[in-house]
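Whether sequence alone determines local backbone shape is best considered at the level of individual chains. For completeness, the protein is quoted in full, as a sequence line and a line of structure tokens:
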Amino acid sequence: MKEGFIPFTHQKETHQTYYKVFGDLRNSTSTPIVVLHGGPGLSHDYQLPHADLASEACGSHPVIFYDQIGNARSTRLPHKPPPFWTIDLFLDELENLLRYFGIQNAFHLVGHSWGGMMGSEFVVRRHPPGLKRFVCANAPATIELWSRSFGELLKGFPSEIRDVISGNREDNPRAYFDALLKVYAVHGCRVQPFPEEFLMSVLYNNGLDADRTVADAGVMKGWSIVDRLHLVKVPTLVINGRDDIAQDWVIEPYVTRVPNARWIQFENSSHLPCFEEREGYMDAVAKFLTE
């Protein structure tokens, strides 16, 4: 494993993108994989199971993780106003990372949740010629579908949890965090106790001392990619879990509108089958990427 920082210049300011690489980028004959974490506002930590894809059993792919700007170990910018935080900012950062590693002509993308939304935007806005395959995991096709699904699933919880989650997080951050973990235990990650990597990412976004700059910037406000999904021309694997916040009808536009998209649902998972059904998930993703 190798880690470090990548200079990223935006609007005449240079920031630092933290990265972590598993596998040998220089000597591998397998196409490298870039993993896009969720949020916005999380970190790469909860996606670390994808390092399994660097193993010989999964195709020996070099796997690159990074913390998106404003998050975790990358440059924090708490003074930047909401208009600074745009989808194109994150796409520029991704392109900068691809150039830094010299893999822009041949790479795969695995995007989870917001990372899947961001990955689909990358495909339709930037048309990257080097992208070989795209895994869109547990991601909604519109933010309205995600919000409706979360609200629907929240009805299955006791009123004290519903009331806290539906209220203002700032009124009682501790109660909000505790209630959120109860929801996540059913629809976020059913592995108990929660994996350390998962908790680390949640703390970055929702802990008592969390930097909420990116999470509260409204990057996804009104977002939808439904009417542009026909522009996704690369082979695409769509994933969700049976108890996922990204319910079947939330991911359905990817399945029906992306040309020749494939869909796999993990029956014993919620939002993180990479943890909940790790072996089966990695086997499915590895097979898709090496076909």
